[in-house]
Amino acid sequence: MASVQTIIIGGGMAGLACAAHLERAQHDWLLFEAADRPGGRVRTEVVDGYHLDRGFQVFLTAYPEARALLDYEALQLRSFKPGARVRLGNRWTRVGDPLRRPIDLFATLGARVGSLADKMRVLGWKRRISTASPEDLLASPETTAAEALRQMGFSERMIETFWRPFLGGIFLESELRTSSRMLHFVFKMFGEGEAALPAGGMGRMPEVLAQTLPFNRLRLNTPVGRISDGAVELEQGGRISADRIVLATDGAAAQALLPDLPTPGFHGVICDHFAFSDPVPYGDWLHLNGNRRRLVNNVAFPTALHPTLAPEGRHLATVTCLTEAPLSQVCADLRTLFGNRTDNWKHLRRDKIQRALPARPHLEPPHLPIEAKPGLFVIGDHRGLPSLNSALATGRLAAESIIRGGTAGS
Known about the structure:
It is built from 13 helices and 20 strands. By secondary structure, it is of the alpha+beta class.
């Protein structure tokens, strides 16, 4: 029977991060990934020359774990404007960040999404949170995101027309039952960095990280069927022993291999991709549907940042809905947002992603233990804040524990 010091099951961002830290320490490891490429839920498919991310995702450049691990230059990041364009009734209004783009000051003050007092509360919140560490935010009193916004004094109009679609696109739930701790952390990340896309789509992130690792240690198309004491059994046959095993799949797949492991549920999302030829004005803004009766939650135009995500002369629209509806209804809602130009948009694909984001409405404790038992680690964004940052952090923590031969951090 073959053996290795550490086996990593799953080649998503958590598994790749663990492998990267082990490799830097010259530790012996082997990674098994069931799919044909690494990345997990961070994936980009090419369809007729269009690069389609699996669900609309953005990369928050302020994530501390990402800053420490990823090569931003290799990712060729380009960013959306800070803020959003919001559709109210039959008009668009702009909400920007005057501290970063003074040119947006008057448009933001005049935006109909809330009162002047609401906008001053945003600035005050940003100032307060800039001095708080992520650890401080995760130790703050916990309530829901919606209740936290009300406690800060935001009007119901501001919550309904801006915060609900903006945060709904991040948390993938429109009721804003997500923990207030997650709310504060995300707001801090948006305030200190940018919402960016890599060249080639979000799938470029795991690709760049995997390129730093020895190719012969990444075993793709190799699903693991069973974990036993000190060994894994491959579905295609074979058993490999290891001193340490790191389970780096999503929560559902982790529970399939470890039935006694309690894991959170998931938020799902529906993402429709459209192609068109006419450029969209203000395409480098995130577009929010602030109307009360909405099916489409938000729309982004990735080719406004990276034209090479589509064939020459063509553009790409990524449409996010938090509830499923027939394509005809989505197209009708798009027409109310962007007019009859959408009649010429060609539908490329629908992604119905049932396990898009772990659902942890309560972050108490903020981080779940990552050592299930001695020598067996469980990592991923379902063990902490549902975010790329937590995925990378749990990978690092597991690697550090393995390297020092001690007990994992939490």
